[in-house]
Specification:
binds manganese (II) ion; alpha+beta; DNA polymerase, domain 1; 15 helices; binds thymidine-5'-triphosphate; five-stranded mixed sheet; 371 residues
Length: 371
Amino acid sequence: PEGSAPTAQAVVSQYACQRRTTTENNNKIFTDAFEVLAESYEFNEIEGPCLAFRRAASVLKSLSWAVQCLEATRNVPCLGEHTKAVMEEILRYGRSFEVEKILSDERYRTLKLFTSVFGVGPKTADKWYRGGLRSFSDVLGDRGIRLNRMQQSGFLHYGDISRAVSKAEARALRNIIDEAVHAITPDAVLALTGGFRRGKEFGHDVDFIVTTPELGKEKNLLPNIVLFSLHQRILLYCDYQASTFDMSKLPSYRFEAMDHFAKCFLIMRLEGSQVEGGLHLAEGDSRGWRAVRVDLVAPPMDRYAFALLGWSGSRQFERDLRRFARLERNMLLDNHALYDKTKKEFLAATTERDIFAHLGLEYIEPWQRNA
Ligand code: TTP
Ligand code: MN
Ligand code: MN
Ligand code: MN
């Protein structure tokens, strides 16, 4: 029955890629707390515990029932001593004092605030903190921090891009980019990826993959989309990174999260008239437009399945796919390819299903990858 632990509990896999995780989270009180702890460790560059809390959150998100006592988690992996102590606190008092201490910590609060700006990562945030800065007015004031172009845009559009993007807004952007892509290359392929592909109602950005059936023609896609958007006056910020992908260098690249495909990190202007049901704006905001973060990636068609799988997320799902490939199959998976280290060969794939099959995994639908 829903809401309680099944009596005969099935063993839950330690790998997110062997679990089905929808957007419905029955254990939010725990996973929210774990996310704060993980982030706090991340800010202090303590990798082990950070990953441990992310894994614990991920496994609890996959449960179809709410944890009501620790004994019920007997068959749930990835829950260590520290994790269980936090859960115990939450079960007993409804909150975790360790988490509350972090939430009121000045350094945590400041780094959280600074990293909420597009273009500001933990390193920059920490540098600003160590320089005595505590608020946006400190950063923007005349004590003079030099901001790069990305950070300038981050502050300029802060209100808009820190507000969630709705599904309707994502659909509107899809139509706009679809029009741009097809005006340039009639046979281009455009796919929504990232959180919206996983069925999320809201996202922090909208992610797309674009490519062309003809190999090599994808090289012109992003520059042309950028020119088209500039012409339409809907481009508020553009960071274009040309491809550094070279198949002959695989698998000697460090197999990692960042890939070598051409990509764009954009801020686009979205008109309210283009969004069914209107824009997702703050109460009392009656502007006819908003800024939205958009990511575009343009892999060559023969890499499409790997890029789609890699950009569909979630990050934890991707991490575990790679970990599973490495530890359970002696294979290397990344956004470009799947390499079998035993056979010393690349395994071809035209669909995500091919990749799951090569890995000997049951297919997990995008909406079941919210690990
Ligand atoms: P995000 O857009 O950061 O995350 P998301 O779409 O899952 O959630 P949100 O609503 O917050 O936007 O990243 C999407 C996926 O893209 C993520 O699994 C990691 C992947 N990715 C890469 O593989 N390479 C990259 O360079 C970037 C920026 C993302
Ligand atoms: Mn996204
Ligand atoms: Mn994100
Ligand atoms: Mn993104």
